Amino acid sequence: MTSADSGQRELILRVATRLFAALGYDATSISQIAEAAGLDVATITQQAGGKRELYLAVMERAHHAELVGLERSVGEIAAASPGETSAAVHHLIDDYIDFCAQNSEFPALWMHRWLFDASDVTELDRQYVQPLVQYIIEAIAPLTRGSPDMKYVIWSVIWCTHAFSRGGVLDDEGNRVGPEDPETLRRFRAYLHEMVHCVLALPGDLPGNPPGGAT
C-alpha cells in the first residue's frame, strides 16, 4: 500500500467513524461515506471493502484505542502497593472518563449497538467487550473488601460514562452541558469516584478528598 493509499484509507476510516457514530450502522450507506470523504464509491470499496468490512475496521480501531488507553491504568493497579490501590482504581476511572470525553464518537458506536444497531454483526461484543470487561474485573476484584457483583459495577461505570460523554446533564436553567464544561466534568468525576469507592468498599478515604467523602 502506498503512502497515498494509506492516507486515503485513514480518511475513509475517520469519516466512517463519524457517520457510524452519528447515524448508526443501519442508517449509514457507502454512498454517504463516499460523499462525506469526497471520494467515489469504487474508491471506498477498493480501499476498505464493503460497508460491513468498513464497520468492522472502525470497531476494531475503536477497541484498540480504548484498550491502549486502559492498559497503563490497569498495570498501575497490579503494581500498586496496599496503600496505593484506591488511588490506582480512581486513576483508572479518570482515564476512562477522559478517554470517552475526548473520543465521544467511540462510546456512540457502542451505544448504537445497545439499541440493536448492526444486529447482524454479532461477533463484536464477544470479541471485544466481554474480554475487556473481564480484564478489568480481574484487575479490581482482588482489591475489594465486600462482595459486589463486579460485572455490574464495571457495566455501571460504562453506562454512566458513555451516557455522560454523549448526553451530559441538564443544568439549573435546563441547558444540556457535558464534559466540555470543566465544572460539570469535575462533578461527574467526583460522583463516579464516590460511587465506585463505596460499592467496592475500597480502603481509606476518597483519594484527593477530605475525610467524609467527595466535596
From TrEMBL:
Tell me any Pfam family this protein matches: TetR_N
Under which name does UniProt file this protein?
Answer: Transcriptional regulator, TetR family
Ranges of residues in domain HTH tetR-type = 6-66
Q: GO terms for molecular function, please? A: DNA-binding transcription factor activity; transcription cis-regulatory region binding
Recorded hits in SUPFAM superfamilies, A to Z, give: Homeodomain-like
Query: Kinase: present as a keyword of the record?
Result: no
PROSITE patterns, per database record: HTH_TETR_2
Q: What InterPro entries does the entry give?
A: Homeodomain-like_sf, HTH-type_TetR-like_transc_reg, HTH_TetR
Record feature DNA-binding region, as residue ranges: 29-48
Q: Which UniProt keywords apply?
A: DNA-binding, Transcription, Transcription regulation
Q: Can the keyword DNA-binding be found in this entry's annotation?
A: yes
